Amino acid sequence: MVKTLDDLTPGETGIVKTHRVKGTLGKHLREMGLINGIPIKLERKAPLGYPIEIRIQGFSLALRKEEAQAIELE
Fold it and tell me: Is the predicted pLDDT of residue 11 greater than 90, yes or no?
């Protein structure tokens, strides 16, 4: 079973294995440091499960649920 960013609970950390976010957003995420081997922490989820706030490379970022499901973790 593949574990994704969306599977984490607030406060949990994982290591990015790969991400399948397409288009311009995928490019921007790579430029911000979302690359293989980087630790990523799920800070919090909104009551309905999205947006999801993550912490990566010293900054916070909000993602949609679909984007979080496209980020696979080790």
Answer: yes
